[in-house]
Amino acid sequence: MKFVYKQNWAEQKTIKEQLSFIENIEEFPSLPSVVLPLLSKLNDPYVSVKEIEKLINMDPGLVSYILKLTNSLLFGLLEEVYSMARAIILIGMSNLRSLVTSYSIRVLCNTITHSDIQEYIWNHSLTTAVFSKVISERIYGVKKNASTYVFGLLHDVGKIVLYIHNPQNFQDALIRAIGKNMDFVSSEKQIFGFSHIEAGYLMIEKLRFSKQMKDVVLHHHNPEFSAKGDNNSWIVSLANDLAHNLYDNKAISMDKYLEKFKISDEALVDLIRVGQYQVEQYRSLL
Ligand SMILES: [Fe+2]
Ligand SMILES: [Fe+2]
Fold it and tell me: Residue 105 sits in which domain range?
């Protein structure tokens, strides 16, 4: 049976109440203190590069993360960049916002104390991010834009929320999904009563992300239910299924994607080859 998103679940008090810790996310000890002020500054159209640079420099982990990604395949710059001010100018405020967001997810992922689960979620998120980027480049010709990468990186943020909510239950849901070869959403629903989709939506809403990001979180397992013209959900859904097929030994059909994107088997194989190559590069980089 297909999972159908019901409009009214966000109003159901039970899920919101159970995940009430999301309301105090600003006080999360694991969220780097500079991230929220930085994101709010990045929303100000009159903010100066100097102000942004000053905030970024307060977190050495963030400095190294931004410089690594700026100098990586993500933007494909011809020159090596060492100065943060130069990096900010070259990649632009919008891409910078995406990178700061993805950094906070990396740090949040590090708080998962169970190392296998942490590795599983991080590798799956990164793989989906890189494939999302490659799909948007190869199918839609989008270049030097970090937004699709971030959609892919955040699509399963609800899994981190579920883990924080109840680590043991999350582990049980994961074991049940793998052991019984069932889909993860059904397994989570049996154990939690809801899935990472609802949990992720509440988190994305709290962090005031764009509608596009919310749509991706809601529809990445069923893009056919997304609004007409919402290509991001389709891109991330394909990236997600490729990540499961290539790295989790699943066998998910590609037919609906070949039809949606109007691409040949050969083009898909070529896309997979490029994606796998880049996934290896990103894994060794981050
Ligand atoms: Fe998912
Ligand atoms: Fe996923």
Answer: 22-111
